[in-house]
Amino acid sequence: MAVRRRTASARKVIGKKSVKGKVYQYEYYTLPLNLYLPKSMVEKWGTDFIIERDEEAGKITIISSKALATQQK
User: Fold this and answer.
1) Alpha carbon of 61 to those of 8, 17, 30, 54: distances in Å?
2) Which of 53, 6, 14, 54 is CA-nearest to residue 30?
3) CB 51 within 8 A of CB 5
4) Which residues are within 8 A (CB) of 29 and not within 5 positions of it... i.e. 6 or more apart?
5) Are 15 and 27 contacting, i.e. CB atoms less than 8 angstroms apart?
6) Backbone angles phi, psi at 52, to 5 degrees
7) pLDDT tens across 16-57, in order?
8) Which end of the chain is more exposed for a tag (fewer CB within 10 A), N or C?
């Protein structure tokens, strides 16, 4: 079984969009491999995550480091 595991930090990206002359700003979070995270997930668990990539099944699993520590207790 070829499961690769690595740690990564979520990166905050601030975007801007102009609609009818008014500029709107929004923010979102990404991980490497252009994986997008919901803002609520980062607010709850922080920015440190573990990415598990199972190449045989073609599956990517994202686990918060804090959630994994809580789960192992």
Assistant:
1) 12, 31, 14, 8
2) 14
3) yes
4) 10, 11, 12, 13, 36, 37, 38, 39, 41, 42, 47
5) yes
6) -110, 125
7) 999 999 999 999 999 988 889 988 889 998 999 999 999 888
8) C
Token couple for 37: 């995270």
Residue type, 30: T
Contact 64, 71 (CB under 8 A): no
Q: Which two tokens stand for residue 7?
A: 């740690």
Q: Which pair of tokens denotes residue 23?
A: 């500029």
Per the document, the length of the chain is 73
Q: How far apart are CA 16 and CA 30, in angstroms?
A: 16
Tell me the two tokens of residue 59.
Answer: 């599956």
Q: Which two tokens stand for residue 16?
A: 């801007």
